[in-house]
Amino acid sequence: MMREPDESVWGKSRGLERPYPLVRHLLDSAAMAGYLWDAYLSESQRAHIAAGLGVADDPTRARSLVALCAGLHDVGKVSGFQFCDARGRGQLSEVLVADAGQAEVQRVGHALAGMQVAPVLLTALGFKEDGAGGVSALERVAEVIGGHHGVFGALEREVTDTAAYQALFGGSRWADERVAHGASVFGLLGGPRGPEVFEASAAVLVTGVVVLADWLVSQEYFLLRRQRGRRMRLREHFAESVRLAPGLARQAGLAPVELARKEFGQAYGIAGGPNALQSSVVAGLEKALAAPGAGRAGILVVTAAPGDGKSETALEAERVFARVCGTRGFAFLLPTMATSDQMHGRVAGSLVRQGGGGGGLTLSHSMAWLSAAYSDQGSSGDGGVLVGAEEHVPGVGPVQWLRGSKRALLAQWSVGTIDQALMSVLPVRYNALRLLALSGKTVIVDEAHAYDPYMQVLLGRLLNWLGALGVPVVLLSATLPVSISDRLVREYLQGAGHSSRALKGCSFRVPYPGWLYVDAVSGEQASIGEEDLALQVGERAMDLAVTVEPVNHLEPAQGGARARLAVIERLVDSLVTGADGGCALVVCNTVDEAQDTFVWLRDRLRSRGLEGGGIELLHARLPADVREARTIAITGGLGRDGGRPAGGGPVRRIVVGTQVVEQSLDLDADVVISDLAPLALLLQRAGRCWRHESWWCVKGRPRGPRPLWAAGKGGPHLIVLDPLAGGGAVPVRWGSVYPEYLLLETSRVLADRDGGRIAIPGEVQQLVEQVHGDRAERFDWESPRWEAAWTAQQGDEFAQRSVGESIAIPRKRSVRRLYQLHERGVADEGQAATRLGADSVRLLCVFEQENGGVTLDVVGDVPLPGPGGDGRMSIEAVRAVMKRTVPVRADWFSPSAVEFAVPEVWAGHPFLGELVVLRQAVVGGEVRPAVVLGKAISLDAELGIVRR
Question: What is the pTM of this model?
């Protein structure tokens, strides 16, 4: 009979009244993993893990094996780890201290130690070596144990299995103690028989479960509660851990919530039913998933013009996937923080209307905690999470648990930037946890066309792993070239097990507007029917009037009538002087030009009657709180329900913005004036013109009728300011914002359409392919300029793809051992490159007052926050500072310049310590810009960060 483990071996100590016995922590973890299997994991996740363990027909055995992995995760602490804490060392039994040997002086990290001692332990528990020349299930469990701190290591058994190496972990008594600890867990779980196989993708998910279980039972308040309770025998302790697990998970926001699914209109707060596209997706998906040979997952691609309800289409598809495929919840991924914030509000409303208000909906991006969606929530908790002796995360209690940087995707519903998901396929710590978080859901990727070649590689790698994990995916786009849809669908299918040879030559052309579904198992395609396609086209058909205005980028005094600013002023004249007003959206390619445009129009039009908030500026170089407030105000005024001014009279509104307005923001302008941009982006910008016309024709117009100058066009009107018309050059100020070749192609296409119309949606796909599609005849031998531009673009795309391929984790089929997920180097999340381009920093502008004070405002009423009486910065103080920060290019500043350092009391703070602080002197009430590397930088209340 196996002896009881020595409870002087400790597992947790910091923040506790006394060290917590390791065996009890292991039993807590095993109990929690069992509950997570029962309640947190979706049906599809359980099925994938069971199949990967070779026990698809025995889920109970799979459950026990997952719980065993969690129950063994910290076995590596029966090693030199015991000597890293004075209190723990002091209570260690004399027999262990006497037999410590090298363990007392030669210390190996406990996760790595656990992996290296696991083969001996598992063999003692009856696991067999039957990898048939590959990776045995025994070795895979060892890899899972080694990866529970977020990084997988290489198991080199020819070295680690030797007696000399094992002696690093203590003498024979220590080896016996490891077996005793493992046997206690093993016995209380019913002695599960080891699996014959353990597939890599299933092991990744099991590692995620182990990490999650460990974190949940490592919460300080939970450990203190267990210590203060009555002393129990191990069997009783385990039973109590099983009893407490549901409440612990529920307090962390992980308890599943069943929605009271409502009809379409009720669910989304829309009067009426679904449109033809939405109805077709639901009916078509149900039919495709019921077809003979169909799997329980696949990839759905939806393409339609802005305003066609693609977001609701995706959520309707998620309903079907949840019902048929056994998924639970969704991750809605978007290109930017601004679009994520807006989508979060829309999704929250839908969930509340369906009884999901008490469920876990998170906003997942790096600055989510500054969003108004979260700002009314406190941050205090019942204690920290103790993860080993080396990691302590204070102030993260059970109520706030899901708001941790690595945890937001674990919620049943999550809305956030795509970067959060892309980190799961980068060699970052805890990428396995992110894959677990995504794997039980439907994953929705909005604006699938909007990512550069580097991000497309990462997106493709993500789809490859989602296909391998059996995750339903929805891709949304208004302008998706066939070359991109082909590449992304192929990646998904290869992950699902289809060979690249079998997929060679296959094309996945998506009807426009419409949808295409490809089954993960059979590879069969289904798409929108002709009748539904005709209905959708009929519901949304309109002609987009296109006008090309040749411009130069000189100042009006030098550029004359064709100067860009003079042209814009002329184009908005009817809005300003006409009796019926109107709304115009002016989209600029750079922040500097947006600021110049705003200033020109403000100063020129104010004297002509455009007062107050009649002209607004929105771009990425505004302080976070200002940008959020302006976004809310603009989308409220130009959204579907935006009404007339409080004083009555016509609406007169001009919004000057950058690329931040072209994606996912719900705006309806009477005219869109845009700088030349690649055609797909121009169509996106045009989608903000007459966006709600069909709705308003039926439901009424809150802003009143369209102004006559806009209605006279008979439809939406896009005016393109083209500096290339007539042989002009790309403006120097644009830099490399867009490839010259795409601008040349777009200019040529628009020249043929000048004064004409584009049929929306009928001609959209044709035009997108004409500019953005892969065509062999693109190389133009007759034009040196076009040849050079084309060659430069191809070179840049190749370089970006090469970087993506060099940094992403391997495709699933190439992963034989789990260390391959980190063999390209381990990056912290903050350094993970989900996007290429210049490095950025967060800039905080502060104001040095004449009395010597330093404040966050010009007037001097808001002093720079400091620590409280306990020496720590309060969350309110940190939020007050971070809301005033702005992301800017890191190369604006010299990296070693001490004058931009944060105050000393902020230096150790994880957020504040990384800021760049720009100090501006206030003299006589006037702010003096700071000169940095030859440029004057200042924060203007209207313009944001100005650099000249």
Answer: 0.91
